[in-house]
Amino acid sequence: MSNNKIKLTNITKKFVTSEMETHALRGVDLEINEGDYVSISGPSGCGKSTLLSILGLLDTASDGEYMLAGHDVSNLSVNQRASMRNEHIGFVFQSFNLIDELSVFDNIALPLRYREKALSQEEVKQKVDACLAKVEMTHRAGHKPNQLSGGQQQRVAIARALVNDPAILLVDEPTGNLDSKNGDAVMMMLAELNRQGTTICMVTHDPRYADMAKRKLHLLDGVMADEFKMELAV
Description:
Blueprint: E1 6-16, E2 21-32, E3 37-41, H1 48-55, E4 63-68, E5 71-72, H2 78-88, E6 89-92, H3 104-113, H4 121-134, H5 150-162, E7 168-172, H6 180-195, E8 200-203, H7 207-210, E9 215-220, E10 223-229
Parallel strand pairs: 3-8, 3-9, 6-7, 7-8
Antiparallel strand pairs: 1-2, 1-4, 4-5, 9-10
Helix pairs in contact: 3-4, 3-5, 4-5, 5-6
């Protein structure tokens, strides 16, 4: 049985300068189970991005414990965090972060090139092709990102995030650079991926999209203010 549970216990984050000390997170407790779809919302400056950075091992907490897929990742070195991040975490950013010089196929394959255990070219092709199919972009495999619409680029970014079979998909304002039609399409895709078993934690300022999650969390001044659990339809 896989252990892909994510658990934060009493996570705090302080930013200290010579003039002041800012508490971005104050004793946050959070559990995300395999197959969850969690949205985190709240006003600007409430700590959403800081929390997502800690979940994604892009930043470390000032205090508290972080368990990821059975590993205590609270005090890892930079290199250890990078290795865990590549193996267990997929990212979808507001700005897509695709490499214009690479084809769609090679953008999606990029995380596989950094695996500790190298894959054969055939294994890489199988994984990339499977992710292209998931986001309905197989016909665009040979294109460059600048030949795609914003919605198509976000689909490619989602495929890249999924290619290493991550324990969790971290999604940061995925519709921020999209019009409403493309934004709705991307959100429907995320919902379908979750139905297929992908664990998702999403930061969004849009209440409509936050409501699509199974669990809705609200951050206020660095504190988890409340939680609402949707009843799943049978």
